[in-house]
Amino acid sequence: MPLTEVERLAALRRYQILDTPAEPDFDDLAGLAAWICRTPIALITLVDEDRQWFKARVGLDASETPRDVAFCAHAIQQSDLFVVPDALADPRFASNPLVTGQPGIRFYAGAPLLTPDGQALGTLCVIDRVPRGLSDQEAAALRALSRQVAALLELRRAGLDLRRTHEENRAAQEALRTSEEFKTRIIESSRDCI
Question: Which DSSP string corresponds to the chain?
């Protein structure tokens, strides 16, 4: 677990993105990652307390996996790209059910999705069923795409904040209007009393 796990989970909750429907912008970035890195699987993952949930996915039907078997749970503890060239040869992952069973992960590369204050919410990752590596260009592209995913998450969060502020302002204006109408009725009825 990262040292700032409580803060990281609080940051993840602020984005209000877990369990939301698919969005084309995120799907496009996952698709680009798969195409650039020539992998059959690419995911935008968000690592929650007990699971990793997939905001976008290419080549995988599952919408989430338990956190305790998630490669991305390791990747969010890194400040840069986390690469596993051959999961069967890596003692951390050799007996992992995602390696020994479906989807048969052998290669993994994940770039953390960092908030402006440095919290890793999840990853943009690419996965293959054969051992391999990334070229320098593929690694640079994966890093760049992960920054774009993080920027898109930030833009989405700012939009939610803006809508919430707009609703609060609208409610305050309505309350003010109601209060003014009440004061006007009091003043008008006070003349009758006098």
Answer: --TTHHHHHHHHHHTT-TTPPP-HHHHHHHHHHHHHHT-SEEEEEEE-SSEEEEEEEES---SEEEGGG-THHHHTTSSS-EEES-GGG-TTTTT-HHHHSTT---EEEEEEEE-TTS-EEEEEEEEESS-----HHHHHHHHHHHHHHHHHHHHHHHHHHHHHHHHHHHHHHHHHHHHHHHHHHHHHHHHHH-
The C-alpha angle with vertex 108 and arms to 104 and 113, in degrees rounded to 5, equals 130
CA angle 123, 140, 2 (to 5 degrees): 30
| Better-scored residue on pLDDT, 64 or 167 | 64
**pLDDT, tens digit, for every residue of 57-85?**
999 999 999 999 999 999 999 989 999 99
Q: How far apart are CA 53 and CA 80, in angstroms?
A: 21
Give the global pTM: 0.82
Q: Which residues face 2 on adjacent strands? A: none
* 59 closest CA partner among 9, 6, 104: 104
Q: Going by DSSP bridges, is the β-strand pair 107-114/82-84 parallel, antiparallel, or unpaired?
A: antiparallel
- Residue 43 CA to residue 125 CA, distance in Å, equals 5
> In this predicted model, what pLDDT tens digit does every residue of 104-161 receive, in sequence order?
999 999 999 999 999 999 999 999 999 999 999 999 999 999 999 999 999 998 888 7
